[in-house]
Inverse folding.
C-alpha cells in the first residue's frame, strides 16, 4: 500500500467513525444543536438551530469563542453538523437575498439571554422590512425609554442578526450606529431593503420614522 492510499484509507476510516458518532448522538438525543455553514452575499455565515428554533447566525465560517461558549452553556455540548436541520434557515435567507421574502417564518430561540435582551430583540423583530427606528425607540418598546445605550449593547450581542433585524436600528442623529457584522454589512442589508436610499453617513433625523 502506498503512502497516499494509506492516507486515503485513514481519512475514510476517520470520516466513517465521525458519522457513527454523530448518528449515535442524534439517536440518543445528545445532539441538541445542529449547525452548518451557509454562503451569503455578505460572506459565509455559521448558522445553528437549537431545540426551539434558530439560535445563532454568526458572520464568518466559525463562531467566536464567546458565542460558542454561550451555545454550549445554554444547550449543552451536543453541537453537531446538521445541514438538514439548518436547511429551512438557508432557504428563507436565500429568498431574502433575492428579494422574494420580506419577513421570516422560522422560529427563533433566544434562550440564554437576559430578560432585557430578550425584550429588546423581540421589539427589534417587529421592525418592518426597510423601516428605520432608533435605539431610543427600541428601548421604549422594550419597556425602558431611558435605556437606549443598554438597548444598543443588547443589539450588539444579538445572536441572530438579519432574521432579528438589528440592521434596521440607527442612532437618534440618523447615523448608522454600530453592527456586529460591521457597518459595510449593515449598509448592504439596508441597501437591499431600501435601494438607493442609504447615505454614507446615515440619514438626517427628520427622515427617521419615530414612535
Amino acid at each position: 500500500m502506498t503512502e497516499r492510499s494509506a492516507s486515503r484509507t485513514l481519512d475514510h476510516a476517520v470520516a466513517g467513525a465521525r458519522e457513527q458518532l454523530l448518528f449515535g448522538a442524534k439517536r440518543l438525543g445528545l445532539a441538541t444543536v445542529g449547525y452548518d455553514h451557509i454562503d451569503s452575499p455578505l460572506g459565509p455565515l455559521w448558522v445553528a438551530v437549537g431545540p426551539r428554533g434558530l439560535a445563532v447566525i454568526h458572520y464568518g465560517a466559525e463562531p467566536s469563542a464567546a458565542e460558542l461558549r454561550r451555545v454550549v452553556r445554554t444547550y449543552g455540548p451536543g453541537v453537531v453538523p446538521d445541514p438538514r436541520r439548518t436547511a429551512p434557515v438557508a432557504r428563507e435567507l436565500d429568498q431574502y437575498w433575492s428579494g422574494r421574502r420580506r419577513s421570516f417564518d422560522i422560529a427563533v430561540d433566544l434562550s440564554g439571554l437576559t430578560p432585557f435582551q430578550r425584550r429588546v430583540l423581540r421589539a427589534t423583530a417587529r421592525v418592518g422590512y426597510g423601516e428605520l427606528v432608533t435605539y431610543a425607540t427600541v428601548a421604549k418598546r422594550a419597556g425602558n425609554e431611558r435605556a437606549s445605550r443598554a438597548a444598543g449593547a443588547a443589539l450588539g450581542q444579538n445572536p441572530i442578526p438579519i432574521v432579528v433585524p438589528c440592521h434596521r436600528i440607527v442612532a437618534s442623529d440618523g447615523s448608522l450606529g454600530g453592527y456586529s457584522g460591521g457597518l459595510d454589512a449593515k449598509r448592504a442589508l439596508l441597501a437591499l431593503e431600501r435601494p438607493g436610499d442609504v447615505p454614507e453617513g446615515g440619514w438626517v433625523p427628520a427622515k427617521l420614522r419615530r414612535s
